[in-house]
From TrEMBL:
Keyword terms of this UniProt record: Membrane, Transmembrane, Transmembrane helix
UniProt keyword Transmembrane, yes or no: yes
InterPro entries referenced in this protein's UniProt entry, alphabetically: DUF4345
Top-level taxon in the UniProt lineage: Bacteria
Signal peptide segment: none
Transmembrane segments: 7-25, 45-66, 73-95, 101-121
Protein name in the entry: DUF4345 domain-containing protein
Length: 126
């Protein structure tokens, strides 16, 4: 693998475990990690949808690593996805106050990955 794909590989390594954490057994895993209670099928459904969304996006990133024709799209998706997550967390910080440590760390990680993906895009887009 070359350095051009590093932002995608890091994003894949972060998002796939996050997706599985959210969606495989949300009623068991999430209460252990977060201050939440998953007590309805509707809420389980939401977390499973998020899991599949994350896995689908990771699939596009994998495609971008494996096929150079998809690298640009995968990188733009990484910028938008990670940037949107960090923006949503920033909005929540302002409106709702500070969340648990895992979400604070998530904000910084997502922001750094968005910025790194943008840097990679500018560096290697040609």
């Amino acid at each position: 693998m070359n350095r051009k794909n590093l932002h995608l590989l890091i994003s894949i390594a972060v998002i796939i475990p996050s997706a599985l954490m959210y969606g495989l057994f949300p009623e068991k895993v999430l209460p252990l990690l977060l201050d939440v209670s998953i007590d309805s099928n509707d809420l389980k459904n939401v977390f499973r949808v998020v899991m599949c969304l994350y896995l689908g996006i990771a699939g596009i990133w994998i495609l971008g690593v494996l096929r150079s024709a998809y690298w640009k799209f995968a990188t733009l998706l990484a910028i938008v996805f990670m940037g949107s997550l960090s923006l949503g967390r920033a909005i929540s910080f302002v409106i709702d106050g500070q969340p648990s440590l895992i979400f604070v760390l998530g904000f910084f990680g997502e922001f750094v990955l968005a910025a790194f993906s943008l840097w990679q895009f500018k560096r290697y887009q040609h």
